[in-house]
Amino acid sequence: MKQSIIFSLLLTLSFTACANSASDSYFTEQPANSKKEYESFRKNIAKAFENQTPKQWGENVTGVKTHLNTNEKVIALTMDACGSPLGMAYDEKLVNFLKKEKIPATMFINARWINKNLSTFKELASNPLFEIANHGLEHKPASVNGKSIYGLSGTNSVEELVDEIELNARKIESITHKRPKYFRSGTAYYDEVAVSVANKLNHQVVGFSILGDAGATFSAKKVEEAFLKAKKGEIVIIHMNHPTSDTAQGTINAITKLKQKGFKFVKLSDYKLK
C-alpha cells in the first residue's frame, strides 16, 4: 500500500538529523557499566547478522505482520506518535473519544514524543484500554545498510538498528515496567534482515493493511472512507500526534459506523498476527 505524496513531503520536512546521537544521550543518565553491558549486547547481535545482505525493501517485506490471524469481525486500531519537530503534539480529542467509547488501541510511541509528553505518556500507559508499542528511538526507516525512503536515511548498520529498537524498548520499560513486544519503524519501511534483527530483540514487526490517515494528511472524509473498507482482521494505522488534522473526526465517524455494522475493536495482543 503506497503512502501519499503529501505524506512523503511531510516526512522529509519533519525528520532531520539530530546534532547529537540519541544513543549517546540515552547513556548520559545511565551508570558507566550499563553502557559497557549494552555495547557488548549490541556487538553480539551485530555478529549474528554480519553475513546477511538484504534483498527486499518496503512496507510488506518478509516477516512484517499486517493482519490479525482471525475470521472474527474485529479490527486492530494502531496509532503512531512519531516525535518529529512537526509531530510532538497530542490529539486529545481522538484519545478522549476512545476512552469514552471504550475502544482499545495499540500506540506506537517514539522516544522523542515520550520526552515531550512524559506525563501524558504515563497516563496512557496506565490505562488498560491501551498497550504501548515501540516506534523507535529516532523514527528511522529500518535498514541494515542505510537504505532511504522519502528522502530519509534509514539506520545504516545492524548496530544502529539495535539502538533504534532496543534503546526505545528499554526507555519504555523503565517508565512502564513492561517491555514492548511490537515494533513499527519510522515510515514503516524495512529490509528483511532488519525484521529478523527486530525479532531477535523479541519484537514482532507490525505494518498495516489499512492506511487510515497517510501521516495525518487525509481529510475527515478520506479517513472515514479508508476505515470503511475494513474486512475481518484488519490492522489500521493512524496518527495521534497531529491534533490540528482531520484524523480525529474521520476516525470518530468511521468507528461509529463500523460498530453499527458489528465490528469490534481490539488490541494487537488480543490475537496472533500474520
Automatic annotation (TrEMBL):
What Gene3D superfamilies does the record point to? Glycoside hydrolase/deacetylase
Domain of life of the source: Bacteria
Q: Which residues cross the membrane?
A: none
One of the entry's Gene Ontology molecular-function terms is: hydrolase activity, acting on carbon-nitrogen (but not peptide) bonds
**Which InterPro entries does UniProt cross-reference here?**
Glyco_hydro/deAcase_b/a-brl (IPR011330), NODB_dom (IPR002509), Polysacc_deacetylase_ArnD (IPR050248)
Secretion signal, residue range per the UniProt entry: 1-19
Q: Which UniProt keywords apply?
A: Signal
Give the NodB homology domain ranges.
73-266
Q: Which GO terms describe its biological process?
A: carbohydrate metabolic process
- Name the record gives this protein: Polysaccharide deacetylase
Originating organism: Arcobacter venerupis
